[in-house]
Amino acid sequence: MLKRKDYTAVFDASPDAMLVVDADGIVRDLNRQAVAMFGWSRDELEGTEVERLVPVASRGRHRQHRRRYGEAPEPRPMGEGLELEALRKDGTTIPVEISLSPSQLGPDREHVICAIRDISAWKRMRRLSGMMIAAAEQERKHLSRELHDEFLQNLVALKIRVKLLADEKDDRERENARARIADDIRGTILGVKRMIRGLLPPELDRGGLSSALGSVFRDIEDVYGFTVHASMGRVGGELDEVATLALYRIVQEAVSNAVRHAGVNEATVIFESSNGTVTATIRDEGCGFELPHADRLPGDACVGLAGMRERAALVGGKVVVQTSPGGGTMVRASVPAQSASGQLG
Ligand SMILES: Nc1ncnc2c1ncn2[C@@H]1O[C@H](COP(=O)(O)OP(=O)(O)O)[C@@H](O)[C@H]1O
Ligand SMILES: [Mg+2]
Q1: Model pTM?
Q2: I want to staple 267 with a disulfide (CB 3.0 to 4.6 A). Which of 37, 237, 258, 277 is the partner?
Q3: Which ligand is nearest to the CA of 310?
Q4: What is the predicted pLDDT for the residue at 301?
Q5: Which atom of ligand 1 is nearest to the CA of 307?
Q6: β-bridge mates for residue 86, sequence order
Q7: Could you tell me if the CB of 261 is within 6 A of ligand 1?
């Protein structure tokens, strides 16, 4: 048989915050998670009305619902279909899911056990996956536009020029036109190669990280006249496949942000390795920006920054961004050389 103190241990072991509330809505007991979640001490909460934990605007409604529940109590989630929020001592709110179970705890009184789950991480993930889907959609649109505007148009023009070539009577003119067509075909092939490189990093397994990034940086120089001063040393060999891909994508995004947003024409990329961690630092001396607050959900405009953080987190690493308006931007990504999630596929 479990003793009373064992029940307290069970109560405290719950990953959810738990409250025992009596028929008058007074908090009679709470577990350790509840203290951590709400920021009130046990003494402050015990004996107070449970509405203290409800945002002010919803308190009246909460009281009514609570009374109605008391008339026909049954185990069920609270406010099904609604987005519930709990109020903390510091005035901030957190999204929660709450389940209610009536229980005859005292000798003569009905109590309700409330299990309260903080779902902010889950909501953030859901929001993020929505953003990722939107970003993938956006990327597809961008690709189809690029395929149409650049390659399809070029090919159509080339087809017409080849046709015209046959009608050209003047040998020299024909030879010149032929050479120009050959040049344009070469240019189009380079463009397609560049595009493929942007999509897949094909050299990652063959030439390794520094060679793959080297070609990304060369393309950026060719297309945008933007110089990346890279110091990659011998870093890369010790990275496993997953960590390599994460760093490749993070550096690619950070550099492309510098190209597109910083308003300068150069950036530096430095790789360092120590104690099994590889760090890539991407720095530009451009316009910088106001960093969204760390615990705020990233806005739709920050898919790139959020994606960098997610990629690093997935392999057990992290990304730190330092920037301020007018003060340039530094992105530093550190990942364990042997990522926690092992090999791809
Ligand atoms: N290196 C940078 N210099 C200046 N502004 C930047 C830089 N990197 C990011 N930003 C700002 O942060 C915003 C969010 O970046 P990001 O999440 O990558 O989204 P996107 O590049 O699609 O706009 C950018 O729109 C830009 O305003
Ligand atoms: Mg970006």
Answers
A1: 0.63
A2: 258
A3: 1
A4: 60
A5: 17
A6: 94
A7: yes
